[in-house]
Amino acid sequence: MRAAVLHEIGQDKLEVLDDVEAVGFGPGKVKLRVRATGLCHSDVSAMSGVLPQPAPFIPGHEGAGEVIDIGDGVTGLSAGDRVLVCWLPACGTCPACRRGQTQLCLAGFMNAGTPNFKRPGGDVFGFAGTGTFTEEVVVDAGCAVPIPDDVPFEIAALIGCGVTTGLGAAINTAQVEAGSSVAVIGCGGVGISTIQGARVQGAAQIVAVDPVASRREAALRFGATEAVAPDGLADAKQRITAGEGFDYVFEVVGKSVTARTAYENTRRGGTLCVVGAGAMDDNFQVNMFELFFDEKRILPSMYGGGDVLRSYERAIALWRAGRIDLESMITHRVQLAEINDALDQMRTGEALRTCIEL
Fold first, then answer.
1. CA-CA distance, 88 to 158, in Å (whole number)?
2. SS3 313
3. CB 296 within 8 A of CB 269
4. pTM, full prediction
5. What is the pLDDT of residues 312-351, one digit of tens each?
């Protein structure tokens, strides 16, 4: 079986091998044939060590495909079913799940420490307990979510992570109000989805902020009312809000420096929503006076900040109705053998989302 493997954390290239085997199939598990998978920035962050992940590992967590086989005790799934991969399934019984905060369930994270692949040289992990840069993968049954027949695999893959994360940040976490002003810092796939979520919510002004010109141009097609380079944000703040600051600012980069910029461009009493996944040693700082005096809400958003199954259904409904554009988010399509080209496209900002077709 072919798969793209990172041998050591810190390497910037993947090796496509054909001696990988998906393992761990048994009760409560399903085996999937991956048909399409998106390249998410979190995959790159895991490769570089920003996000913790044992190695060697197979990146990829934004995938969709077909069920090959189901283990004992699995209900609601059959061989041949079309599914998307949920990298953070809810167990339904932990305290977070019982409180209705299923996006904070840690059960899925526990799978990240159990190898679900092997090679002649030893065990191989799957990123976030999945690992979709491969032809086949074994996952918990909760990771395989059935999708309607009219949803293409590449669209379902995007909904499995980036789209749900971005839409949910605007709709679930920040709860953007109609007529409000919004700034989105970082306009990759998740940032573009955040822009679309703010548009769905009825924001009057949506300013996209990104250093890459092609991403700024794309943001305008997806609903931003204007797009600026980082050095143009201060001018946009002055023109649009008379210097007060935006009602909502979304940080979709995952760095403390951009989070601080987001905080400074949020109005007093406004909302800073942190969507980007950053490093454990990168600390975001505010002083105690401004924290008290400005009364800005700082809201992290994990996987869209809500029940992911409901979020998937909502994304599909909005896509069907033409309220969000998901097809155009896929700017590049590659085969698995070209995965390193896709990594370069992401690092340079050339791609919004690359679909790897298997």
1. 15
2. helix
3. yes
4. 0.96
5. 999 999 999 999 999 999 999 999 999 999 999 999 989 9
